[in-house]
Specification:
The protein has about 250 residues and is of the alpha/beta class. It has eight helices and nine strands. The chain is globular, with a radius of gyration of 17 Å.
């Protein structure tokens, strides 16, 4: 259960979840119902705090357009296939959320009326105001753009306070902590430093879009129970905050 003593820092969020997060390590199944149910439970906990929640979900557990293009498939077709994979994941998360008692809408950038609503910004905002979780699927609807870019774009369109980038690591490091034991984890870092040091947080276009519009990004490990609530409350002990002010971002842990 959520900690009633916690005070949310953000009122409207975009939670970015990778497709790989839905797959159990070592399993042949693309989607683990147990993992999806656990993600839904964590979302339900922050929803109970009154947070307005939008989710952008990837499709890498099913199909990666860029990887397929590197193996000879035409890039545009491969990317559209990846967008459809995100719709499958979005429907799986919607089902789990509604089983947890959370009213949910899936909006897709590629029209498929029998499956989901088309993305309409004002309708999405209205859903959020009514306490519904909105899942944005099919990326931006355009090839050559990642779901990281979709998260940045949708967050700006709905006037979100922050992007919560849920990953398998506890923030941003100066180097790969699995390779370099001396790697330092940042509490805060600027967008410009992320770009200059080529840190693998989000793709460069997504980072640049957030930088130009002063939209913070919180990178944290979603696998740890309770971390989504902590991220919503601005707890920097669980991850890294990417901000615009270079001087403000010099604090490293």
């Amino acid at each position: 259960m959520p900690d009633s003593n916690r005070s949310p820092k953000y009122q409207r969020i975009v939670l970015k979840v990778s497709g790989e997060a839905l797959r159990e390590t070592g399993s042949n199944d693309n989607i683990s119902p147990q993992i999806v149910a656990d993600i839904a439970r964590q979302i339900q906990e922050i929803h109970a705090l009154g947070i307005e929640i939008a989710v952008v979900i990837g499709g890498g557990n099913i199909w990666r357009g860029l990887s397929a293009s590197h193996r000879g498939m035409e890039r545009t077709t491969a990317d559209y296939m990846g967008m459809l994979a995100t719709v499958i994941n979005g429907l799986a998360l919607q089902s789990a959320l509604e089983q947890a008692g959370v009213t949910t809408r899936v909006q897709t950038a590629i029209e498929m009326m029998e499956v989901a609503e088309p993305f309409i910004r004002r309708r999405a905002e209205r859903h959020l105001e009514k306490g519904r979780v909105v899942i944005f699927a099919a990326g931006t609807g355009n090839p050559f753009f990642t779901t990281d870019s979709a998260a940045s774009l949708r967050a700006l369109e709905i006037k979100a306070d922050v992007i919560l980038k849920a990953t398998k690591v506890d923030g941003i490091y100066s180097a790969d902590p699995m390779v370099f034991r001396e790697a330092v984890r940042y509490d805060k870092i600027s967008y410009q430093e992320v770009l200059e040091k080529q840190l693998k947080v989000m793709d460069a276009s997504a980072i640049s879009l957030c930088m130009d519009n002063n939209l913070p990004i919180m990178v944290f490990n979603m696998k740890e129970p309770g971390n989504i609530i902590k991220a919503v409350c601005g707890d920097l002990s669980i991850g890294t905050l990417v901000v615009n002010d270079r001087q403000e971002a010099q604090t490293a842990k």
